TrEMBL record, chains A, B:
A Pfam cross-reference name: Peripla_BP_3
Alphabetized UniProt keyword annotations: DNA-binding, Transcription, Transcription regulation
UniProt xrefs under InterPro entries: HTH_LacI, LacI/GalR-like_sensor, Lambda_DNA-bd_dom_sf, Peripla_BP_I
Signal peptide: none
SUPFAM superfamilies, sorted: lambda repressor-like DNA-binding domains, Periplasmic binding protein-like I
Protein name as it appears in the record: LacI family DNA-binding transcriptional regulator
GO terms assigned for molecular function: DNA binding
Organism encoding this protein: Kribbella karoonensis
Stretch list, region Disordered: 374-395
Ranges of residues in domain HTH lacI-type: 54-108
Length: 395, 395
DNA sequence: TTGTACGCGTTATCAG
DNA sequence: CTGATAACGCGTACAA
């Protein structure tokens, strides 16, 4: 019933404009209007084939025009008289016709879909805030709703390659996102070989050559974190890195180090971890076991930072009095740790939106719109504070 | 180069069996074998059209058979002589031909894709462990790799409806998953009207009628939590519910209440929240402000529980001495809260796998395999303990 | 504006 | 049995 109402409204709306360039027509109703019983309106129709979806031919016949004319109308192309246009729309509405996406894909040789491969260790899969937000952002960028997002979740590198190959081979996607860029990543080249249009998602400043890169300057957040700690009197600031080899991991480490150099502070210890809680805990123990332990630690993500707080508590250290902790991501839990976590927040949703818009533009051979991402934010909460240690540079 | 090797291997494998029923052939190489320079092998070919993808017609011509024969071979249908089969495979390998997924979709009237609509408040999007794990599970269930997962992330109910309509209208998916079932949910019916095959993902015992339901008995976990608290001497056990109206929200509340009744404990206070940290914090304050505050709280998810711990800490209460806390989900952070969180864990990945297998079977008109999900686990960590309050039932 | 070939497999029909 | 022919699914694009 609801559908019928929609249908009526759609029909009423169908007053043709003059034949200026006309927007594509989009009619919002399900494939088959009359399913079970022949609806009263359809009796007026020419041939009521109830359970069969109408085709462009049916519409053309009913409107008394050719298929091409119908195609022109639906695609908003000029060169159709107002009367024909009107008749076509009327016929389409009456038959409940929608152009078939499948037939379109075949003749246009495009799927109208973009692909995303998610590669994550099982443990990180449900904690990493990146992908959910990124996907939400993509959807916003795909907002015209004419593209779909095809997803594949994989666990290792080999499956990842296979996933991209599959996208290409089965033409599942017209373009793909490339995330988690690694140092000396060979994937951009591989995607080119596969003939897949790609947008690379990586921190600003990355130049993998060729494909366009959408990036945020997340290292600005890390720099601000170090400056913040310095202003609180910290001299010994360590860093717990995420998985080595990723561009963003390195970018964060470089930002930490660069800030220390700027401030003339000694370069603290770096421990390589892998973004998991367990690795963050281990790294924290390592740092606190040093003969001269840091008074502050900057972590590569929130999960490791929170594990660090937990380790500190276990060892009887107070946060932030004995140890200040900074995370990265600002997961929704960050305000609810004890103490609340100071961290860096990027607008991942906006990032995804920009990436999607760029990718769609590329796929359609248009000029990608300029990207303007909001700046990274540094969120000060309770896990950072003045150090209680008289930190004179050596003790 | 890699491709060439694969190709050789594929070719070598191509020894035809006898004409028993033959498995579909699957060749793993990219669409176009020779891209830039004409490869040495292709000169031996009949017509080397470098940049153009081969079609079934080309293969048929090269093998000296008809298109139907090629089709039969690729689809593993009987009725093809071993010689023909051999020639076809040889020709296909030589031309690097793959059946076009698009053409197949058109003629088979199937997309070979399943759809998932994710509806979440922005805040919960990046914390909720359900969807990432569920998606990973789906991928495993789609393992034969012949189906794709098409995703849509939406924020509200209206967009959700639109998403399903779009799946149907554009034939983006042959079937869909229906998650977050609500009480008196109208979506199953709507999906039926749209002609979309669906699998409902909801707690065990739900009977929305019609569509098959894949469920876990997550309430068993909540029951065990209550029993555990009882065994620790708790008499006043409250519950913080998630968003009202969801089947799983209600199921958890009922499980909590049922366990209390079983044990002859007074039914504690229920506060309705919405799964966010903020709501969990607010609910906790409410409970602790009661004239007779609970000594233990069972939360509808981990995020709210962790917020609860934070509130308790702010109010100077010790967890678990003054207040025991139980969560639900076992997010990867749960071991790293202070104290570590006692919680309930479901195997969401297995759930997703089962759902996917069921959906694919339905779409293909086969009998769905029996589902056998691992039981829910109850994970005791540090946030629950003997109550320090002399809890005699009234104080 | 229209006719029509085309994109690419699938499948029913029919002949060998 | 084996295999070929042709119609079909549904738009798009180009020539007329």
């Amino acid at each position: 019933m609801m559908w019928v109402n929609r249908l009526r409204r759609a029909r009423r709306r169908a007053q043709p404009d003059r034949n200026i360039v006309i927007k594509p027509v989009y009619i919002d109703y399900p494939c088959e209007v009359s399913t079970a019983e022949p609806s009263p309106t359809s009796t007026a129709g020419v041939e009521s084939s109830p359970s069969k979806r109408a085709t462009i031919g049916d519409v053309a016949a009913r409107a008394g025009v050719s298929k091409s004319t119908v195609s022109f109308v639906v695609n908003g192309r000029p060169g159709v008289s107002a009367t024909s246009r009107d008749r076509v729309l009327r016929a389409a509405a009456a038959l409940g016709w929608q152009p078939s996406a499948r037939a379109r894909a075949l003749s246009r040789n495009r799927t109208q879909a973009v692909g995303l491969v998610i590669r994550r260790d099982p443990e990180l899969l449900s904690t990493d805030p990146f992908f959910p937000q990124f996907m939400a952002g993509i959807e916003i960028g795909l907002a015209a709703r004419e593209y779909s997002l095809v997803l594949q979740v994989v666990g290792d590198e080999q499956s990842e390659r296979a996933a991209y190959r599959r996208f290409a081979r089965e033409s599942r996607a017209d373009g793909v996102f490339l995330t988690d860029l690694r140092i000396h990543d060979t994937r951009p080249e591989e995607l080119r070989e596969l003939g897949l249009t790609a947008v690379i998602v990586a921190p600003e400043g990355t130049e993998p050559g060729g494909d366009p890169t959408i990036g945020m300057n997340d290292d600005a957040g890390v720099r601000r974190a170090v400056h913040h700690l310095h202003s609180l009197g910290h001299q010994h600031i360590a860093h717990v890195m995420g998985t080595a080899g990723y561009v963003h991991t390195e970018a964060r480490r470089r930002a930490w180090q660069g800030a220390l150099e700027e401030l003339g502070l000694p370069i603290g210890t770096v421990v390589t971890a892998d973004f998991t809680g367990a690795s963050g805990a281990r790294a924290t123990h390592e740092l606190l076991d040093l003969p001269q332990p840091p008074t502050a630690i900057v972590y590569g993500n929130d999960l490791m930072a929170i594990a660090g707080i937990s380790v500190a508590a276990d060892r009887g250290l107070r946060v932030p009095d004995d140890l200040s902790v900074v995370g990265f991501d600002d997961i929704p839990l960050a305000p609810y740790t004890v103490p609340p976590l100071t961290t860096v927040r990027q607008n991942v949703v906006a990032w995804g939106t920009a990436a999607a818009q760029t990718l769609v533009a590329l796929v359609e051979g248009k000029q990608p719109p300029p990207v303007d991402l909001p700046p990274v934010e540094f969120i000060v909460r309770g896990s950072t504070g003045r150090t209680s240690t008289r930190d004179t540079g050596s003790r």
